[in-house]
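User: Hey, quick favor. My workstation is busy. Could you predict this chain's structure for me?
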Amino acid sequence: MNSYDQAVMAAKAISSKKGLDIQVIEISDISVLADYMVIATGTSSTHVKALADEVEYRLDEAGISVSHIEGYRSNSWILLDYVDVIVNVFSDEAREFYDLDRLWQDGKPVDLTGIVD
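Assistant: No problem, here it is.
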């Protein structure tokens, strides 16, 4: 499975648990960190954890193990590093504070029409 498919699978997992404002940004041309950045918002700390858990579960079922997890004890931001895909799940306040959408604005947004609700 290529990195695009992994990013879309993560977005679908987040969507299945009612994650909000899901963005997938291709950053391979502007960064060596990863190929794709997935950014989403949860409505509460419990929801943020549920979204991250669903991504981890779905990708693990597909044979893709998370390389590193940050912020799981946090109440506002969880980062799942899949090497070629980085998934960020935020509370609304944390997403506004860190503003990764602006930071990665030079990346190419992936059209998720028909992929996520």
